[in-house]
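Researcher: Sequence recovery benchmark, item below. Answer with residues only.
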């Protein structure tokens, strides 16, 4: 039996890893996985609750690297992952998405000639100021198999000259998850509709006071106009900044709350009137749940959602945010046909099995 090492560290990766772990189990695949958690996210609400709720196997290794500057954080992960790869014999390393944990896993593995399998390959925002863009480009270039969630991702990789043999259109494991979990997700609190679900966690929004203030002001104006609340689950970084901000910026309509669990996110998104976010994952979850999304960024790597009219880019510009919210309030999004058939995880596991046979 071949053994692979799955590397996770941040909230969106736990969700994606759940789909693959369940597929390995359900397909009785001819491979086993050990999970290595870098410790990039460590609060219960950012980490352990996802393992419990999504029944993800407990990590065999936890590096407990915690928070830090990008270089230092990635370096600690790189060292810790290399130690594990030197100690045990893995036939492949599975990495997800575009976080510092992704890059560290890919780099440690490729240097030791262990094949890297990248889930969510080929995404591009073409904004190299974002650490995620650097992480995803570099990870793609280390990878033996590139699992592209959309045809746009396939085309991005082809344009960059990757061998066609490496590129596999798998579909999106997050669609697998939404199809499986959305029907069984119920909110723990009885929330009065309509409401907006909003999140902000990107450093370029949280760490520039003018941008954060503009976003909050726009959220208040949309909520006033629509006579509704804004449910605002706050990433710990955002919460710290909000706590130090002048309370005047926050209207009573914005309900700051702890980060939601995965099932709670789906339940809340499904019942919302509109989602407003700078998160890539939540943009997709909204779309998969049949909800429109105002994107609080100047660009997105999930261009399909904008092209089909289910999301609008509004950056941190109050006029654009209000205008986008008005337009999307009454809009019904199309079906998410561009993200595969809801069986991406099976395809990924089967292709890995063939590769490492
Ligand atoms: C990381 C990813 C981002 C992803 C996001 C999902 C990178 C470069 N960024 O961003 O792509 O969208 O995860 O949430 O890898 N903190 C805590 N407790 C925690 C985790 C973080 O308090 O459990 C605080 C710390 O102050 C930390 C800050 O949040 O410095 C940022 O955490 P970090 O993991 O560096 O980046 P994220 O913004 O979460």
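Model:
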């Amino acid at each position: 039996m071949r053994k692979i090492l799955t590397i996770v560290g941040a909230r969106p990766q736990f969700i994606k890893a759940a789909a693959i772990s369940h597929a390995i189990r359900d397909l009785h695949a001819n491979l086993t996985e050990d999970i290595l958690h870098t410790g990039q996210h460590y609060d219960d609400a950012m980490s352990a609750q996802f393992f419990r709720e999504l029944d993800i196997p407990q990590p065999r290794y936890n590096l407990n690297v915690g928070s830090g500057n990008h270089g230092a954080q990635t370096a600690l992960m790189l060292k810790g992952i290399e130690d594990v790869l030197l100690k045990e014999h893995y036939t492949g390393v599975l990495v997800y998405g575009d976080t510092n944990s992704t890059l560290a896993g890919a780099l440690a593995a490729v240097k030791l000639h262990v094949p890297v399998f990248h889930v969510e390959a080929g995404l591009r925002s073409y904004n190299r100021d974002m650490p995620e863009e650097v992480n995803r480009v570099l990870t793609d270039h280390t990878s033996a198999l590139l699992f592209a969630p959309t045809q746009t991702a396939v085309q991005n990789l082809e344009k960059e000259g990757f061998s066609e043999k490496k590129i596999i259109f798998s579909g999106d494991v997050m669609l697998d998850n939404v199809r499986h979990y959305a029907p069984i997700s119920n909110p723990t609190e009885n929330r009065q509709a309509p409401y907006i679900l909003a999140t902000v966690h990107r450093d370029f929004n949280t760490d520039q006071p003018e941008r954060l203030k503009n976003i909050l002001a726009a959220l208040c104006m949309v909520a006033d106009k629509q006579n509704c609340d804004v449910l605002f689950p706050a990433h710990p970084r955002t919460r710290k900044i909000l706590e130090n901000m002048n309370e005047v910026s926050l209207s009573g309509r914005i309900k700051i709350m702890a980060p939601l669990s995965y099932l709670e996110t789906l339940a809340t998104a499904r019942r919302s009137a509109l989602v407003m976010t700078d998160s890539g994952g939540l943009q997709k979850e909204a779309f998969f749940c049949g909800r429109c999304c105002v994107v609080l960024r100047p660009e997105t790597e999930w261009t399909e959602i904008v092209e089909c009219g289910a999301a609008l880019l509004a950056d941190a510009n109050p006029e654009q945010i209000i205008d986008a919210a008005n337009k999307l309030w009454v809009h019904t999004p199309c079906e998410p046909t561009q993200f595969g058939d809801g069986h991406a995880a099976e395809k990924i596991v089967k292709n890995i099995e063939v590769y490492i046979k």
